[in-house]
Request: fold
Amino acid sequence: MDRRIPSRAAIAAAFLAAAAIMPAFARVAAAHVALGPLSIADAPAGGGSAEGAPRQVGYARTVDPLQTAQGVRRQLQWVRLPEGGAVAAVSVTSPGAAAVRAALRVGDLPPAATLRFSAPGDTGAREVGAEAVLAALARNRDAGESGAAARTYWSPIVAGDTIVIEVELPRGAEPGEVAFTTPLVSHLTAAPAGGGDSREARAVFTTDGASFACPGMLVGGARDGSRYFLTRERCVSTQAEASTMQAFWTVGGAAAQSGVGASLLYASTETDTAFLLLDSPPAEAARLARSVPDGSDPALEQWTGRAASAGAVIPAATFSVP
Reply:
């Protein structure tokens, strides 16, 4: 069965305890939650034995102290900033993880707030505007999806066994306006990396804390640039899954990655195809993408050309995924 999630224009909103841990970018110490070692019960046998099947690379870890908004508030120690805002942070360690990502279920968050995700000691962090987080969750709802997965924002993937979550409020916003939980982290057993071909990506998506890797590629439209991503439907079949996706490449020995999230434009079980529009493509997107000149591929042109704005349906059996 073919399925298309409509109204691209409507969902393409603005996107983009224990010892303290102080990442280099932060202006506040992070309250620290340390989980126990990953147990066999936490890590059931992963998928991926069948050809093209998603390969499980991460396992759900429950974060008991952050299950409720009240529990998160107890951890966050707000510090006033000279410019009038406020900042607080919390970190979670999953021992032995090669990488970690955190779930956020948002009750209230000022749209002008900023979230930062990093490993301890990083000189930089992945910065995400609260407006983009709220837009991603709204996009899931607009696609008709509900349930815990649709209400969860998954952070960028951070290398190492500890993720620091920092929340910065602008002048005029108060800590009482912040209500979110971090009920889960995903414990990745291998750091994400691209495929052997520099144009082949590894797309990681997360469902209920379990993370999976699938092959994929960028395709570049002549008008809209290199934001379109092609992968398998068995990997990304819902908008909630697309909202968690982050893609990784290896280019000449150097790593490249997208931001978190994409709009699911089309999915087909018959062709095992999913076609997405990345919220934040990598800086190297133009040279990573397969070029699609006008008229060269009528199926892709329906999205990457002028017809994209009309929400055209892509004919089946046109694509192949590495």
